[in-house]
Request: fold
Amino acid sequence: MLVFIIRRLIQAVLVMLVVSLLAFVLFRYIGDPVTTMLGQDATEADRIALRHSLGLDQSPLVQFGHFVSNAVHGEFGLSLRQGQSVAELLKDRLPATVELSVVAAILALVIGLPLGIYAALKRNGFIAQSILAFSLLGISLPTFLIGILLILVFSVQLGWLPSYGRGEVVYFGWWSSGLFTVDGLKHLILPAITLCLFQLTLILRLVRSEMLEVLRSDYIKFARARGLSQRAIHFGHALKNTMVPVITITGLQLGGIIAFAIVTETVFQWPGMGLLFIQAVQFADVPVMAAYLCLIALVFVIINLVVDLLYFAVDPRLRTSIGKAGGH
Reply:
């Protein structure tokens, strides 16, 4: 298992180097940061001085080395639009995005998993068919439209929930959270539902299809022949084997929730990293765009590593195959 982890870590480092190269190309060759920071009326001497201070007069290889070194230390320079440290901007926006993404992922799992199991075990019932119809609706509707519809119904027409912003938050050091205030929870409800709906329906349909496939397998027939109870068959054998692909998809979707929260944050003006990225794109704020790209890649790499390790907890066949490979 140690060899497996080391191999995955090496792959993660290679992936991050490739992403860093892409971010560096974005940072270095898209737009002119000197012109953006000084404007069109700056003198040539001012341009040369700033270019030297930014290290833009060095060779691309040296610049890439500095870029990677700074990225490892969490430094991505200054925002061209706001004139602040990019690391500080991301640090201020990170809690909002993490909070929204984690709540959306928990909702998707807590609701999608039992609904998928029920739709598989009662697949011919009216409720199960209604759940499938709902899942088609959730997959088909785009995220921005879901958000707008929720705002129209619950904010404009009913007036129950706020339509934008994060509300009142509580600070724990530099970390902020709206989970501990009533106003923060009210502001969180609509964005979390909007962000989780697609993931919820995806998990629901995946669990249902995998559960039905497992229930048709030979070892489930043998378990029934041995006289095991339905509960033991469904939750002791079938569900455990169903969880392997579910863990894969759920892990990747968690990264997707964080990466693609951009639409939800824009619709609800949620002050997270996604909204910051959209603003950076509008103003060609390349340092912020490069930092966001590296951060999201790091999130996906970490999640993939965690998902690989979780396989060992739910699938003993994988532990056996890797043990045999290590023995050879």
